[in-house]
Amino acid sequence: MGNNPGASSFFVENIRKRNRKKLLVEVQTLDSIADKERWTSSTFEKPIYLLKVDVEGYEKFVFEGGKRLLQTRKIQNIIMENSNEDLELTLQLFTRIYGSGYRMVALMDHNGP
Predict the structure, then answer these.
(1) 77-99 residues labelled b (16+ CB within 10 A) or e (exposed)
(2) What angle do CA 25, 29, 30 make, to 5 degrees?
(3) SUPFAM superfamilies, alphabetically (predicted)?
(4) Which among 15, 62, 63, 111 is placed 20 to 30 Å from 50, CA to CA?
(5) Taking the domains of the chain in order of start, what are their residue ranges?
């Protein structure tokens, strides 16, 4: 997932970092998936109990691509790992989430609460 639909590529390395392979993957936005599943429809009344995001530093872009879904407030819980060390991107990420009416309940590092 990302903020722009289409395709993206990344390199897959083996342990010895030789024979890198370029892998092309389809990219969809969270909003495009939500539209397809009708989650953003006013007639869809069920809550979305959990959204788990684990995208290794690409969190801001996933949530940018999910603006409409976030604004519906149908997601009851969001669990995410923020792997991005860029503080500006992290600030933008949390600004989007808080701006959509969500709040942080727990913050943990890799060792736990």
Answers:
(1) ebeeebebeeeebbebbbebbee
(2) 125
(3) S-adenosyl-L-methionine-dependent methyltransferases
(4) 111
(5) 6-99
Nearest to 70 by CA among 40, 43, 90: 40
Above 70 in pLDDT, residue 13? Answer: no
Tokens of 39: 């989650």
pLDDT at 36 over 80: yes
Classify residue 55 as left (phi > 0), alpha (psi -120 to 50) or beta: alpha
Of the CA atoms within 13 Å of residue 75, those in its CB half-sphere come to: 23
CA distances to 3, 47, 85 from 6, in Å = 10, 28, 26
Assigned token pair, 14: 């083996």
Each residue's pLDDT tens digit, 66-92: 999 999 999 999 998 887 788 898 899
